[in-house]
Each structure stands twice: as structure tokens, then as C-alpha cells.
Amino acid sequence: MTAPINTTTLAHNYRPDIDGLRAVAVLSVVIFHAFPDEAWLPGGFVGVDVFFVISGYLISKILFSEIEQHRFSLASFYGRRIRRIFPALAVCLAAVLAYGFVVLMPSQLAQLGKQVFFGASFLSNFALWSESGYFDGAATSKPLLHLWSLGIEEQFYILWPPLLWIAFKLKAAIGRLIVGLLVASFAVNVALSLADTSSDFYLPVSRFWELLAGAALAWRPDINLKGGLKHVISLAGMAAILVSARLFASEMRFPGWLALLPVAGSVAVILAGSSAVVNKTFLSNRVAVSIGLISYPLYLWHWPLIAFAYVIRGKPPTLLMAFGIVIVSLLLAWATYRFIERPVRDSSNRLRHTSIVAACVAVLGACGLAVWVTGGVPQRFPASLDLEKINAAALDETYKPTNGMNVLEYNSRGYSIVAQIGQGARKVVLAGSSTMFHYGPRLQQLADEGLLAVRAYFVTGPACPLVPGVVARDEFANCAHVANRLLELVQKEKVQTVVLGPHYWPRKNAFIEREGKSIPLDGGDEGRRAFYANLEDYVRQLQLNATVYLVLGAPQSLTGLNPQRMVTRGVTGVRVETNVDNAVPIADLRAVYAQPDADLRAVAESTGAKLLDVFPDVCGNGETCSAFFGAREPKFTDGVHLRPVFARKHLHFLDFLLM
Questions:
Q1: Which residues fall within 8 angstroms of residue 524, CB to CB, at 6 or more apart?
Q2: What is the predicted pLDDT for the residue at 6?
Q3: Continuous segment of H or E residues that includes residue 344
Q4: Is there a contact between 471 and 480 (Cβ–Cβ < 8 Å)?
Q5: Closest by alpha carbon to 23, among 231, 241, 202?
Q6: How many Cα atoms occupy the beta-carbon half-sphere of 273 within 13 Å?
Q7: Strands 426-432, 454-460: parallel, antiparallel or unpaired by DSSP?
Q8: Are 519 and 534 in contact (CB under 8 A)?
Q9: How many angstroms separate the CA atoms of 482 and 489, rounded?
Q10: Helical H runs in 227-318?
Q11: How far apart are CA 128 and CA 125, in angstroms?
Q12: How far apart are CA 446 and CA 424, in angstroms?
């Protein structure tokens, strides 16, 4: 993300169309973040690549001019960067950290402190790269996630000005230097896109070519494009940016080769000049220029507001809330530009303001580090309430292979996993949704104790019922593959035992194919009956090779057992549930599965499949179920999934099949 550049410092005239191009870039990013479910701009993240090109062009233009005229000074350059980047950043970091004290629990605030520290150090991209991976925490829980791009940009400007100055002093061929560095960086980008997309996305060396593309454009002699050529280039460039924003998607290998399209489009728009048709009529429009001028603070503000909305609600903001967040972001951006950025930038006492804003960012970084090291300042809450244990439970990863598992297949789009553990002669498959995969730690415990006597497989997909004929038309479309994969595995590996956790799946945009009909699985009786009829057929098919066990509904609760609901956040702060110590009646928990369990019993009676019940292991044999075990450790990580630390020692209902 590039901060606004005062282009009047250049020998060339100010170009309002470049501020308009900034508006296109920042609005692409904001729309992508604020309205993900609407998918209006699924590739809106390319706005960052547009910013990189703009930044490389404008700042390199200044550098070339100053060095050629022997006016260049590293101290002066970095002073300008500090006065342009630090004021808005300091205000944003301070506001985000202060609000985090109000609404975040200790471990969440500790993570925010870490983000503030690395954000103030312009190393966010490295921090995110080190954390990234398949099981990384949700991006929506990181209010300062977006500072990765600012880190890359500032890392470039730590290296680029002194390198240019040395090259000029040595009378090196600047054009060849730029092209050589650009090609090398792009080659690293392409190589990493094939081997490690996370490294490709976050590491500076694979992103520098985008800034260098702008630098190459700044180095070229000014070209006065005549006739209709400049209009064609302008239109083609804007089309490339808009096509990228509309057709790209986050699951693509990006940046890689794909980034060429928005980068080339940005270069084309700038190259076309301010008199080209798109630049003059659209990008130089007063509204576009105004948004471009506040693009940097708008970029800074929009994502923390969205992330806090996710954290507080536990789910995405509604469409109306998202529009509200965008409006508030625009207002905050304007106020930051008008009352913070401009006064500092236009001040006559530059040294004083440079020192003040640099000190502010340094102090904020130190505060973030202190919050991180102290574990999120747990002293904010009563000592009698062990928020750390509740917090740790809420952050546990459940859909994750254990250390002893061998992941045979992983579908990154649908997140389905086929994994194997143990080397015994007998073969057992546990199949179903993520609620089957959370039994994995128990198998790992048996393996660690030398008691796992089977070769066990997991065939699972999040929220996937193991029933053929289920067709989803959303992110769960891959579920149809999971049921087929289980049958293939049973037949190929000659599996003797199958444990299924197929619960009814009332969901919009999902259907069950039965006898040539496509029946909605929206909670109606017809869909439910077809679902269990298909399950019955599937069980009989599996029984040709294996003994089948069906797992009855496991305890779940949206409140009483859920650590994520024991301590909740509102806009004004953290609230502790008054009934957090109360056990939940088992009758209430079983009532959730009354109909599905009755249907499973009917399938078992019809097919001869055996039934398994996990309730006694989780809740005991009394009339109530406690949310805690041991030294008041929560059993669950959310309202559905058991914690690995609980599953390892307390789930015994499968042991007779495994030992």
C-alpha cells in the first residue's frame, strides 16, 4: 500500500489521473474485504499490486530527478517517508491497540500486540509468512493483517535508494540494472508460486518486481503517444485491472504469472498519460481524485474495522453492516488525511514533526511488544476467572492431523482429508465430517502408548455427510467426492471395519439425488427421508466388504459447553456469561439429535449396522454434562468440536475396535 506522494515536488506536472488510479486500487481492496460473500470483486486483492506499481513509479521518478541533479540525500528521503507514512499509521495502531484492550481476551490481545509490534517495525509480511500454512488462524481474526503490503513497500525503499545512488556514482547502466533486478525478482516469484504460494505472497524478493515495473516506467524517456494509440493503451490497461479484480480468486496461485495482468495494466494506464481517454474522463474525475488522496488512510482503517466486526460477532458482518463499515472507513480516512497527514506533511518544522511521529510509532511498537510478552495483560479481568484456559480452548485446532498421522490426500479447495495412522494388520476407517476427525487425538494417544493394534484411516471433510447423492452448490461441493473416496478405500485396502458419522444435513443450496429426483435438503421431511434412504443403501454397499458402525449424535451446544460463548465480546467490551459454571442437562443435549438418532436407529435395524454412543465418554452417566474436566479445563473448543487434550485421555468408546 502506497501513501500519497506529493508529485508537485517533481519536475513534471501533477497527474490527477494517478490519484484516480489509486482510488481504483483501494476500492478494489475494500470491496474485496467488505463484501466477500457477494463476490463482487473476488480478485480485488490485486489493488495492492496496482499500488506497488504506482509507488515504484512516483518515488523512483523523484529519486532519479534528485540524484541526477545532485540533490539526493538519504536522510531527506527517509524523512519524507516518515512524514508521509508514520502519522496515519501511528493513529491507526494506537486506535486498534486501545480498542483491543476493550474487546479482546488475553490471548487475542497478545496476538494483536504481536501484530502491532511487527506492523510498527514494517515486518508484518515476515510475521505472517512464518505463521502461514494450512492450519493458520483465520485472517479475519487479525486486525492488522493488511500491513504486510506496507512492510514489503518499506523494505523495498530501504534497499532501492542507496542502491540507485551507488549505481549513479559508479555510472552503471540504470536501465539494465532495473531490468535485471525485475527479471530476477519475477523469476523468484514464478518459482515460488509453483512451490510455496505463501512465501510467494509474503516475501519481498518475489514482490519487488512489481515496484520495479513502476521504476522502469519512471526511468524511460517521456514518450508522447500520438493519435489513438494512447487511448487504446489506456483502455487496455484499465480493462486488465478490472478483469483481474473480477475474475481472479483467492484460491488461485497468486501472484505468480497471474500478477502480470494487473501489473501490466497499471503500467499501461500510467504510460498512456493524463490526456488518454480513461485517464482524463474517469481517473481525473473529482470524486476519483478525492478518494485517491485518502487512499492510504482508507487502506489502513478499513480492515481493522472489518476484522473487529468478525471478532465481535463471531461471523461475517451483514450486508448493511459492511456498507456501514465502508462509510465509517471513508470518514476516518478523510479525517486522518485532513487533520493528521496534511498538517504533518505541510509543516514548516519538518525535523520536529519527523522526530515526533517516528517516536510515536517506536513507542507503539514497544507497547505492542509488551502486550505480546505479557500474554495480553490478563490482569484486566478478575483473578477468579481463568480466561486463559477458556481462551486456549477457543483457539484449539480440531481439524488437524496429529503428529503421527500420514496425510495421504488433502483437497485444499474443499479441505477434505484422507489420513492414516498405525501399522496393524486389521484395517479400520473413521469417516464423516470434522466431528469424526476430532477423535484422531485418541488414536494418537493409543499409538504413543503402543496400544494401537490397527491400521486406521480417516476420510473426512468439514460439514460433509458421508452419504452418496448429496449435491452442494457452494463451498461444500467437494463433499460428494468424500463418500466416493471412502468406498474406493474400503474396497482397495480390504478394510474390515467402517465407523460412520453421517448426520442429517439440512442446508440451503444442497440437494439429495434419489430415484432420478433432486430433492432439497432444506429441513423438509422429503429430503430427510431421501437422505437416510441413500444412507441405508450406502451401508449395505459398505457391508459387502466391512462391518459398519454408525455413531449417534455427539454432545453439542451453542452456549453451555462452548468456550467461545462463555466469554463474549460486544462493541463496548467483554462480557462473561453468568451461567458459565452451570452444567447442561443431558436431556437437552440429546434432544438436539432426537430425530437424526431415531433415523440412524432405523437404518441400523434395517441393515444390521451397529450403533456407537459417545455421550457417556463426554458427559458421564449422570443427568447433567459439565463443560469442564480436570482443573477446570473446557472440554470443547467450540459448540461442536472436542479439544484434542480432552479426546486423548477421555474418549474410550472406540477403543474396542482399535486395541
A1: none
A2: 45
A3: helix 342-345
A4: yes
A5: 241
A6: 15
A7: parallel
A8: no
A9: 11
A10: 229-247, 260-272, 277-278, 286-293, 295-313
A11: 5
A12: 12
SS3 550: strand
User: Global pTM?
Assistant: 0.70
Is 609:539 a contact under the CB 8 Å cutoff?
A: yes
Q: How far is CA 90 from CA 87, 97, 466, 475, 578, in A?
A: 5, 11, 51, 39, 38
Rounded-to-integer distance, Cα 373 and Cα 493, Å:
50
Q: Annotate 205-232 with b (16+ C-beta within 10 A) or e (fewer).
A: ebbbbbbbbbbbbbbeeeeebeeeebbe
* 8 Å CB contact between 344 and 88: no
C-alpha cell at 31: 470491496
Report helix angle 47-68 to 260-272, nearest 10: 50
Q: What is the pLDDT of residue 46?
A: 97
**pLDDT grade, residue 414 (50/70/90)?**
low
Question: In the 8-state DSSP scheme, what is residue 644?
Answer: H
User: How is residue 398 written as a grid cell?
Assistant: 480440531
What confidence tens digit (pLDDT) does each residue in 41-77 have?
999 999 999 999 999 999 999 999 999 999 999 999 9
CB atoms within 10 A of CB 199: 17
Which residues face 570 on adjacent strands?
573
At 559 the pLDDT is 66
DSSP 257: G
| For residue 143, cis peptide bond before it (omega within 30 degrees of 0) | no
What DSSP string describes 79-95?
Answer: HHHHHHHHHHHHHHHHH
Residue 132: burial class (beta carbons within 10 Å; 0-12, 13-18, 19+) = middle
- Per-position b or e across 283-312, b if 16+ CB within 10 A of its CB: bbeeebbebbbbbbbbbbbbbbbbbbbbbb
Are 165 and 67 a contacting pair, CB within 8 Å? yes
Q: Which amino acid is at 138?
A: A
Amino acid identity for residue 29 in this structure = V
Cα separation of the two ends of the chain: 56
368 exposed, middle or buried (CB, 10 Å; 0-12, 13-18, 19+)? buried
Query: How confident is the model at residue 527, as a pLDDT?
Result: 85
